[in-house]
Amino acid sequence: MSAGKRRPPARPHRAPKPRRRASPRPAPAAPGKAPPVHAGGTRLAVAAEPRRPLLQLPPRPAGELAPEQRRRLEAVLVLPARRRLDALMEAPDVAELVPAIPADDFAATLLEVGLGDGDVLLAHAADEQLVHLVDVTGWSGDELDPAAAVETLDVLRDSDPELVLRWLRTADESAVLSLFGRLCVVTSDDIPDPGKLDELELGEPYSLDGAFLIWPRDLQREGFLRWLLTLLFEEQQETYLWICRSLPWVLESDVEEDAFIRRQARLIENGFPRPEEGAEVFRPASAARMAVSRVVARTPTATGTDRAEKEALAVAAPELPEAGLFAARCIERLAPEAQAELRAAIGRLWRLVLAAELLHPGKPDDRAAASRLATRTVSIGLEHLSGGDPDLGASLCLARTALDLFQVGHSVVLDLNRRAVALRKTGWLARIPDGVRLLEAPLRQAYEACRLPRPRRFAGVDEDGKPRMEPLATMAEVDESRRALETIDVLGRLLIDGLGLPADFSETINLSGCLPDSWSELTAGDILRTALVHGAATGAVAFVPPDAGELLSFVRQAVASGTLRETFRGEAVDLLLSRLPGPTAATDRAVLASYLAGVLDRLAEELAGVDASRPIDPRFVGGLVRRVGGG
Question: Are residues 397 and 328 in contact, defined by beta-carbon separation less than 8 angstroms?
Answer without folding.
Answer: no
